[in-house]
Amino acid sequence: MYADFHCIDRWSGKEVHAMYQALIVAIATRHADAVDIKFLVDGHPVWVALPHPAWVEYNKRTGKVITDPLAVEAAGHYLKQAIEQGEDGSREMHTLTVAESLRHVEAVVDEIRRGVGKGSKEEAVVTNL
Fold first, then answer.
1. Please, what's the b/e burial string for 20-37 (b: 16 or more CB within 10 A of its CB; e: otherwise)?
2. Rounded to an integer, what distance in angstroms lies between the CA atom of residue 93 and that of residue 91?
3. Which stretches within the chain are classed as H helix?
4. Contact (Cβ atoms closer than 8 angstroms) between residue 71 and residue 50
5. What is the pLDDT of residues 57-103, one digit of tens each?
6. Distance (Å, whole) CA 99 – CA 101
7. d(C-alpha 9, C-alpha 13), whole Å
8. Whether the model pTM is above 0.85
9. Helix (H) or strand (E) holding 24
């Protein structure tokens, strides 16, 4: 679904390819209370930072956890939307709020529940729906 995707950049009209590369707990690299998820967008590094408090809030609301694969999918969902809507501005770092993070997590979970990606590896992203 969103760990490896193609989309059209709003401003250039060109197709771009984004591919997940790494997930890093940001406290180790930049002393931030977040998880940094790295994508390569046409070969250029782009990071999406999801704040740790989103994990706590999601657990309070649902009783479930955000797994690493779900976090990657949510970050990719955000990134795809940002590119398509022209909001990425060729930035290297995108920092989401708790509310933004939860919105993208919930969108991915909803797509999985509706069967988007059914029969593929995306089905395994959320094991405790």
1. beeeeebeeeeeeebbbb
2. 6
3. 27-30, 53-62, 68-84, 98-114
4. yes
5. 999 999 999 999 999 999 999 999 999 999 877 789 999 999 999 99
6. 5
7. 5
8. yes
9. strand 15-25
